[in-house]
C-alpha cells in the first residue's frame, strides 16, 4: 500500500475535487502536502479553468477507454452528429432510463463515470495520483442521485468517493474582502447554468454548517436566459435563411451558431454597456445592450430572489440576523443580480474571485480538513455500560422496548421483548437497576444473540426512581423468573408496580 | 403513471414503517393516500337546464333513476354510486348528520325536490347507491343547470369532481359552449373546464335524423360527429374539451325501460319494409294517432314506442331486429354500443381515470417528500426507517415526466405557454391525451412495428434535444420534458424488442 495515502495519524491523501455542473465542470487536485492545483482544459485555443459538462460518443477509436470524448473535445465534435452528443445530463443523474446515443444507449451513470475518468486521467500530471474523489452535489439530491454519483466515482477507478453539498462547498471558498466572521449566517446564492440553488449556512471555526436549502430545478438557469435572449437574434438568422432557398440545408448549423453567439453576447454584456456579436458571415453583427439583457433576465432573477426570501422566512431568520449573501455560479455575473439581492436583504452581496470556480475552490478548502474527519471509539466506562443478551435461538426480531430513553428501571425489569424465529416471545431483563442512555435497535429490527442492544447508566439520579413505566408483569423478582412458560400477567403480580423494585441500588 | 405501482409503493411503505407513535402521522397519511387511490372516479355532469343531463345520467348508469323533463326548483345534486344494496342518503350543508331514507321515497325527491320535512336549501346533495348495470368504475354527479341561478352551487360540486361531462344540446351547442365559458369565467376558482378534465357530450343528436333534405343519413351519430368537429375546430371552444362526442342518450335511456311487450311491438313494426317505415315516421302525427294501411299495432301502442325511443331510435331498433337481434337485452346492448354510450363510459374510466390517478399520485408524492420535515426530533433510527419506507413513493415522481407533463398541459390549455400549436399538439399527444400506449404517444398508428416505434422515438429525442438549445424559454422547458418522455418511450420499446428477440440490445 502506498504510504502517502495511509489515512492515519492525520497524514493527508491526494484528493481529486470535482464540481460537476449542469453546463460546466471544474476540478482541482489537493496534494498530500496541502497544496491545491486547478486542472486546466485545452480547448484548442488556450487552457481553460473549466470544461463543458458534455460527452460525445466517438464511433472511431478516438483513444478514450469507453468510446466517449469528454469536455472540450466532445463540444468540438457535437456538430459531426448531434445524436452522439449529450450535455445537460446532470438532472438525470439517478434516473435509470438509459440515454440513447444514436443506435446505442447508456445509463447516465456511465456518462458521469466517463467525465470523472477523464478528470482522473487529467490529474495524472500530479503525483501521487489521487485515488480519493470528492465530488460536489446539489444540496437536495434524492438518494438515487447520491448513489449514482458514488457508483460512477467507483466505476471511474477511485477507491473512495465522498460527496459534499455544493452550497456548503461554496461557503468555504475564499471571499473577496476577507473571511466571514464565525457565527455569521450566510445565504449562498448559486445561480448556475441549469438550475438555481440556495442555502443557509452558518459559518464555523473551521467548517460551516448547512442549515437549510431550496432551489428551482427548472426554468431558472443561465441557459434559460440564453433561450430568452436568443429570441432577439433569431429574426436575423431567419431572414438570412429565407433570402435564399438554397440555404435551407444550413438551418441546423446556423441554429447552433445563433446559440453560441447568444451565450457570447450575454457574457460580453455582463461586462459592458453595449456589445455586438458575429453569428456568421452574411449576417450583420448583432448588437444589444445591458439594459436589454437585464429586461430579459429580470423575471428569472426575481424568481430566484423569491425562492431565497421564502427560504429565509421558512427558517424564521430576521433580516438583521442574515449576516451576508454569497454569490456563486456563472450566472451571478448577469446585470441586476446584486441589485435584486441588496434590495431584498439589505446587505451587500459578496463574491468570490471567480463565481464559476467558487464551488470547486471551496470544496478543495474543505478537503484540507479531511484528516480531521475522524473520531476515536469510546470504550464502556464505569457508569455507562452496554448490555447484551443471548437468546435460545440465534436471531430474533425486537418486538418492542418497554422502556424509553432516560427511563430508570429496577434490577430484573423487562427492558425489551423479542420474537424468536419459531414465533415465540422472549423477554430481555435488566441485570441491575439503571437508566436508559440509548437504544441501539428499534422496534421491528432484527437482532442477534450477544449484540449490544442498549447502553445504560448504572447511576440513577434521586427523583428518577419512578420514571420506569412499570408494566405489571415486568417487575417479577428477576433472576428466578426463567420460566418463560409461566406467562405474563399472573394476577398475583398486579399489585406490584412502582414501589416494587424501583429503588436505586 | 398507472395507479397500481403507486398503490404498491404505498402498501410497501405501510409494511416497512416502524411501529410506535413517532411514525403514526406518517401511517395515517399513508392510509389516507391508500383510500384516495382506491376511491372511484367522480364524474360531474354539467350543462344548462333541460340540456339532457338527467337523461344522460340515466343512460350512463343503465337505469331510469332520475326524473327527467322536470324543472325542479331545488338545486339538488344527485350523486350516484355503485353498491350492492340500494340506499339513499341526504347530505346537508348545515352540519346535520346525513339522513338515510327509503329508496322508495326517491321519486318524491327527484320529481318535486325535497319537501317540507327536509328544508330544501340546506340539502347539499343526495347520495344514491345501488347496483346499476353500467355504474361500476365511477360515481356520477348530476348538477343543477347552470345559468339558472344556482351557478355557485353547481361550481362548488364540480370542483370536487375528477372529470366533467359538459352536456351540449345539439340544436344550440355553440351557445351552450359559450355559456360554459362564461360560467368558467365567473366561477374562477379552478372550475376545471379545460381539456385536462372536461369532455363535451352532444345530446339530442337523434333529432338530426334523417339529415338535411337531399343529404339524408341514417346514422344520426355520424351527423352528430360533424357537429362535434365544428365545436372542436372553433378557436374559442376547442380550449374547453378533451373531446366532443355525440350520444343518443334518450334512445339509450329509453331502451332501459323497454319491456318484453314493447319489444314484441317493435318486432311487429320491423316487419314493415324500412323505406315504408321511414316514410311513416316522417309523418309522426299520423304514425302515433291514426290507423294506417300496412302498419301493424294500434296507434296508441305506436305512440308509446315513439315516445320512449324517439322516431330515430324506433327506426334503428327495427333495423337491428331485422338484422337478427332477438331479445330486449340484446337490443339494449347493441343500442348502447351504437349510440356512443359504451365508448363514453370507457373514455371516462380509462382516460379520465388515469388522469385523476396521476393527480392523486402527485399529491401523495408531494406529501411523502414533506414527511422528513415532520419527523424532526424523532429517534434517528425511526427517521431513517420512515424515509426508507417512503422511498419507493418519493422515487416515483423523481424522473417520471408525467407530473411535469401534467403541469405543462395545464399551462398549455390555459394558454399560458408560449409554444406553437404544433408543439402543443405534440405535447398533448406525448403526454397520453390520445392514448397512453407507446404507439399513441408517438403518434404512430396501432399497427406500427416496434422497430418503427423505436426509430420514431429516437427521431423525437433528437428533435427535442436540438430544440433545448434553439427555442425560446417555454419551448426549451417543453423540450427538456419531452426529451425525457421520448427517452423513456425509446427504452420501453427497445426492451420490448429485446424481450421478443427482435434485437439483442
Ligand atoms: N460573464 C457571464 N455573464 C453571464 N453569464 C455567465 C457569465 N459567465 C458564465 N455565465 C453563465 O454561467 C453558467 C455556468 O455557470 P456555472 O458553471 O456556475 O453553472 P453549472 O455549475 O454548470 O450549473 P448548475 O450549478 O446549474 O449545475 C452558464 O449558463 C454561463 O452562460
Ligand atoms: N329528443 C331528445 N330529448 C332529450 C334527450 N335528452 C333529454 N331529452 C329531453 O329533454 C328534456 C330535459 O331533459 P333532462 O334530462 O331532464 O334535462 P336536465 O334538466 O338537463 O336534467 C326532457 O324532456 C328529456 O326527455 C335526447 O337525447 N333526445
Ligand atoms: Mg454549479
Ligand atoms: Mg335534471
TrEMBL record, chain A:
Keywords (A to Z) from UniProt: ATP-binding, Chaperone, Nucleotide-binding, Stress response
PROSITE patterns recorded: HSP70_3 (PS01036)
Domain of life of the source: Bacteria
InterPro entries in the cross-refs: ATPase_NBD (IPR043129), Heat_shock_70_CS (IPR018181), Hsp_70_fam (IPR013126), Single_hybrid_motif (IPR011053)
GO molecular function, one term: ATP binding
Any Pfam family: HSP70
Start-end of Basic and acidic residues biased regions: 492-505
Keyword ATP-binding found: yes
Region described as Disordered: 481-505
Similarity annotation: Belongs to the heat shock protein 70 family.
Name by which UniProt lists this protein: Molecular chaperone DnaK
Organism listed in the record: Streptomyces poonensis
From TrEMBL, chain B:
Start and end residues of each Dynamin N-terminal domain: 43-204
Domain of life: Bacteria
Protein name: Isoniazid-induced protein IniC
Amino acid at each position: 500500500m502506498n504510504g502517502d495515502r495511509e489515512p492515519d495519524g492525520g497524514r493527508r491523501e491526494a484528493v481529486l475535487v470535482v464540481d460537476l455542473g449542469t453546463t460546466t465542470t471544474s476540478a482541482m487536485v489537493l496534494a498530500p502536502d496541502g497544496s491545491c492545483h486547478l486542472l486546466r482544459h485545452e480547448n484548442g485555443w488556450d487552457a481553460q479553468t473549466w470544461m463543458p459538462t458534455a460527452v460525445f460518443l466517438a464511433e472511431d477509436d478516438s483513444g478514450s477507454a469507453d468510446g466517449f470524448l469528454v469536455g472540450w473535445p466532445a463540444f468540438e465534435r457535437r456538430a459531426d452528429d448531434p445524436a452522439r452528443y449529450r450535455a445537460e445530463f446532470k438532472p438525470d443523474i439517478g434516473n435509470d432510463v438509459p440515454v440513447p446515443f444514436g443506435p446505442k444507449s447508456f445509463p447516465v451513470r456511465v456518462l458521469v463515470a466517463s467525465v470523472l475518468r477523464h478528470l482522473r486521467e487529467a490529474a495524472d500530471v500530479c503525483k501521487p495520483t489521487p485515488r480519493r474523489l470528492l465530488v460536489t452535489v446539489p444540496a437536495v439530491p434524492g438518494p438515487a442521485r447520491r448513489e449514482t454519483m458514488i457508483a460512477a466515482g467507483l466505476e471511474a477507478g477511485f477507491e473512495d468517493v465522498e460527496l459534499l453539498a455544493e452550497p456548503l462547498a461554496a461557503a468555504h471558498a475564499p471571499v473577496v474582502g476577507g473571511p466571514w466572521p464565525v457565527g455569521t449566517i450566510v445565504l449562498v446564492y448559486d445561480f448556475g447554468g441549469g438550475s438555481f440553488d440556495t442555502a443557509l449556512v452558518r459559518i464555523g471555526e473551521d467548517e460551516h454548517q448547512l442549515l437549510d436549502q431550496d432551489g428551482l430545478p427548472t426554468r431558472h438557469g443561465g441557459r434559460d436566459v440564453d433561450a430568452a435572449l436568443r429570441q432577439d437574434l433569431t429574426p436575423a438568422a431567419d431572414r438570412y435563411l429565407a433570402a435564399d432557398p438554397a440555404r435551407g440545408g444550413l438551418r441546423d448549423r446556423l441554429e447552433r451558431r445563433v446559440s453560441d453567439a447568444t451565450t457570447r453576447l450575454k457574457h460580453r454584456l455582463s461586462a459592458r454597456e453595449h456589445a455586438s456579436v458575429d453569428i456568421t458571415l452574411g449576417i450583420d453583427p448583432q448588437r444589444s445592450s445591458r439594459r436589454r439583457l437585464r429586461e430579459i433576465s429580470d423575471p428569472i432573477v426575481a424568481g430566484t430572489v423569491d425562492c431565497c426570501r421564502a427560504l429565509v422566512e421558512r427558517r424564521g431568520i430576521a433580516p438583521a440576523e442574515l449576516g451576508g449573501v454569497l454569490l456563486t455560479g456563472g450566472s451571478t455575473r448577469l446585470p441586476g443580480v446584486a441589485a435584486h439581492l441588496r434590495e431584498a436583504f439589505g446587505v451587500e452581496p459578496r463574491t468570490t474571485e471567480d463565481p464559476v470556480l467558487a464551488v470547486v475552490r471551496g470544496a478543495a478548502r474543505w478537503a484540507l480538513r479531511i484528516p480531521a474527519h475522524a473520531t476515536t471509539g469510546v470504550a464502556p466506562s464505569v457508569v455507562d455500560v452496554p448490555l447484551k443478551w443471548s437468546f435460545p435461538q440465534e436471531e430474533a426480531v425486537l418486538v418492542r422496548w418497554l422502556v424509553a430513553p432516560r427511563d430508570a428501571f429496577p434490577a430484573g425489569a423487562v427492558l425489551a421483548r423479542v420474537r424468536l424465529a419459531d414465533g415465540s416471545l422472549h423477554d430481555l431483563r435488566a441485570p441491575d437497576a439503571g437508566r436508559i442512555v440509548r437504544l441501539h435497535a428499534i422496534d421491528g429490527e432484527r437482532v442477534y444473540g450477544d449484540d449490544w442492544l442498549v447502553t445504560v447508566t448504572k447511576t440513577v439520579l434521586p427523583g428518577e426512581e419512578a420514571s420506569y413505566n412499570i408494566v405489571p408483569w415486568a417487575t417479577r423478582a428477576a433472576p428466578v423468573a426463567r420460566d418463560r412458560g409461566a406467562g405474563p400477567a399472573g394476577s398475583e403480580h398486579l399489585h406490584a408496580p412502582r414501589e416494587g423494585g424501583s429503588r436505586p441500588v | 403513471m398507472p395507479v397500481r405501482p403507486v398503490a404498491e409503493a404505498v402498501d410497501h411503505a405501510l409494511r416497512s414503517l416502524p411501529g410506535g407513535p413517532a411514525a403514526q402521522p406518517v401511517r395515517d397519511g399513508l392510509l389516507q393516500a391508500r383510500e384516495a387511490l382506491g376511491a372511484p372516479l367522480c364524474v360531474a355532469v354539467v350543462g344548462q337546464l333541460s340540456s339532457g343531463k338527467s337523461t344522460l345520467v340515466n343512460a350512463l348508469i343503465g337505469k331510469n333513476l332520475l326524473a327527467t323533463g322536470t324543472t325542479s326548483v331545488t338545486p339538488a345534486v344527485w350523486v350516484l354510486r355503485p353498491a350492492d344494496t340500494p340506499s339513499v342518503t341526504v347530505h346537508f350543508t348545515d352540519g346535520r348528520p346525513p339522513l338515510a331514507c327509503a329508496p322508495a321515497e326517491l321519486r318524491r325527491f327527484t320529481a318535486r325536490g325535497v319537501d317540507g320535512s327536509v328544508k330544501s336549501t340546506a340539502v347539499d346533495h343526495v347520495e344514491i347507491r345501488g347496483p346499476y348495470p353500467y355504474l361500476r368504475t365511477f360515481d356520477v354527479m348530476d348538477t343543477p343547470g347552470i345559468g339558472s341561478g344556482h351557478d355557485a352551487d353547481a361550481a362548488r360540486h364540480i370542483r370536487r369532481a375528477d372529470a366533467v361531462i359538459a352536456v351540449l344540446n345539439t340544436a344550440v351547442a355553440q351557445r351552450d359552449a359559450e355559456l360554459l365559458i362564461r360560467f368558467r369565467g365567473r366561477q374562477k376558482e379552478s372550475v376545471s373546464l379545460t381539456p385536462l378534465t372536461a369532455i363535451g357530450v352532444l345530446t339530442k343528436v337523434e333529432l338530426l335524423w334523417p339529415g338535411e333534405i337531399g343529404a339524408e343519413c341514417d346514422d344520426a351519430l355520424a351527423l352528430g360527429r360533424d357537429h362535434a368537429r365544428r365545436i372542436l375546430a372553433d378557436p374559442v371552444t376547442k380550449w374547453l374539451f378533451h373531446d366532443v362526442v355525440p350520444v343518443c342518450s334518450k334512445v339509450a335511456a329509453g331502451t332501459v325501460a323497454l319491456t318484453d311487450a314493447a319489444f314484441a311491438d317493435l318486432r311487429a313494426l320491423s316487419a314493415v319494409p324500412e323505406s315504408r317505415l321511414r316514410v311513416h315516421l316522417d309523418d309522426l302525427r299520423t304514425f302515433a294517432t291514426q290507423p294506417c294501411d300496412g302498419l301493424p299495432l294500434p296507434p296508441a301502442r305506436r305512440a308509446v314506442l315513439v315516445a320512449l325511443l324517439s322516431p330515430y331510435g324506433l327506426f334503428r331498433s327495427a333495423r337491428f331486429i331485422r338484422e337478427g337481434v332477438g331479445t330486449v337485452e340484446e337490443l339494449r346492448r347493441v343500442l348502447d354500443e351504437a349510440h356512443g354510450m359504451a365508448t363514453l363510459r370507457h373514455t371516462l374510466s380509462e382516460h379520465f381515470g388515469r388522469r385523476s390517478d396521476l393527480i392523486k399520485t402527485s399529491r401523495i408524492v408531494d406529501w411523502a417528500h414533506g414527511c422528513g420535515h415532520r419527523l424532526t426530533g424523532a429517534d434517528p433510527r425511526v427517521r431513517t426507517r420512515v424515509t426508507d419506507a417512503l422511498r419507493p413513493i418519493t422515487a416515483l415522481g423523481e424522473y417520471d415526466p408525467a407530473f411535469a407533463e401534467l403541469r405543462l398541459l395545464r399551462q398549455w390549455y390555459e394558454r399560458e405557454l408560449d409554444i406553437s400549436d404544433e408543439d402543443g399538439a405534440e405535447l398533448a399527444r406525448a403526454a397520453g391525451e390520445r392514448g397512453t400506449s407507446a404507439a399513441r404517444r408517438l403518434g404512430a398508428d396501432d399497427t406500427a412495428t416496434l422497430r418503427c416505434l423505436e426509430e420514431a422515438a429516437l427521431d423525437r429525442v433528437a428533435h427535442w434535444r436540438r430544440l433545448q438549445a434553439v427555442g425560446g424559454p417555454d419551448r426549451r422547458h417543453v423540450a427538456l420534458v419531452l426529451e425525457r418522455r421520448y427517452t423513456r418511450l425509446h427504452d420501453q420499446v427497445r426492451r420490448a424488442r429485446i424481450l421478443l428477440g427482435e434485437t439483442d440490445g
